[in-house]
Design a protein that fits this description.
The chain is built from 17 helices and 11 strands. Among the domains are: 121 residues, Arc Repressor Mutant, subunit A (Orthogonal Bundle); 118 residues, Beta-Lactamase (2-Layer Sandwich), CATH 3.30.450; 32 residues, no CATH class. Helices cover 43% and strands 13% of the residues. Helix 12 crosses helix 13. It has a 6-stranded mixed sheet. About 3% of the residues have low confidence. The protein has 477 residues and is an alpha+beta fold. Pfam families: HTH_3 (PF01381), Peptidase_M78 (PF06114), ScfRs (PF09856).
Amino acid sequence: MKKVFVGVKLKRLREERGLTQIAFAEAIGLSASYLNQLEKNQRPLTVPVLLRINATFGADMQLLSDGDEARMIADLKEVFSDPASGETVSLAEIREIAASMPAAGRAIVALHRRLRHVTERGDAMAHELGLGAAGLATVAPMPFEQVRDFFYRHHNYFAELDEAAEKLFAEAELVEGEVVEGLARYLEQRHGVRIGVRKPEGEAPSRQANRDYNPKERVLRLSARLDQGQRAFQMATQLAFLEMGEPLNRLAREAALGSPATHALARIGLANYFAAALLMPYRAFLAAAEAARYDIDRLAEQFGVGFETISHRLSSLQRPSAAGVPFFLIRVDRAGNISKRQSATDFHFSRVGGACPLWNVYEAFAQPGRTLTQVAQMTDGRTYLWIARAVRHTVGGYGEPDKTFAIGLGCDIRHAPRLVYSKGLDLDDPAAATPIGAGCKVCERPSCPQRAFPMIGRSLAVNENRSTFLPYAGASV
């Protein structure tokens, strides 16, 4: 373990518990003088001390993780790259904020995001109205953005829902990969809910509901076009609303910040999380994933669901006592819009200017049906293994629209040997990795031929007498 100084974080944890230095030191078996030195960053945190604190205070020690610190550094770099900040902040200063003052760092990031939301909405409204942006009212983040950030903050893991789903799987005597019959039986016996099939009645297929629950009749109607895995997922989602109302509401209130629309969307997202956890109970799914070396197609066949659903579940295996590979997941469309991003670890998804065009997640659209692999290196030197595939959702019928997305699933390169997708890849040669960035506006690579924008905060050296292959090659600090 490298030397880690966590004085401010440790002091904050102690103060949140309402403990004096003496009481805190006694709780973890240290002398008060030693704890005092830790809090003043006169001594680094050691592994034995970290384990003692973790055993005593549990999940709160996530505050000390390198992953969270790296994530905050990336967020703060984005904040201080914005010319609107009015200051040039060095990487050393950013690292100090992230390491020593994480709460202040989170507040800075939150304020910057609110400013960006206000600016973007203001610009859009001004464009529509033909007015200047001055004087427009403050606009909160959109509900789907709040929910997306809520899942991101929780590292896409909710222990309460996961454990409840695993317990219910056993109580309902469900069969792995063949849960439709068991769920139907459980819904009727426990809740008096019957399952019906919703057949088309002149309505366009794209407008038909996949799931339609009538609480008065106690009937759950599922679309006839759904396959077995999709039916099981919709049934499990409805079961979440029927049985998990209190935890769904409590967690949704945390996400909502007073917004009814955000609360409603968060409840749906959390119910979907529970549904996936029910169809793929944690311990059984983790064991299967390890045995299959995280082969998504094999897992999809075993659990009776699709590529995207398996990818989602893989990104949530972060139970402290039995963690899987910490994945991050992204879903994009052909235009580069990111509709989903979930992270069990510290990979940074840019919120400014889209993602990197050199990422294999975009190449997946050109090779439908194929699973692509890529060893990619970020600007901070961290290297990752990425898996990408295009997925298509259709309702059938001539002329009906469909949905096509690319799913990207990535992990730190140190976990790559555990994945079947590392076969044939050179994991040890840094030169073999594709250099990518979080997005052109925050990417520091000066020699990228795919750059769409200069980095925020860099001035342009424009020379009408000279043309180069590299766009914005004259940008400077």
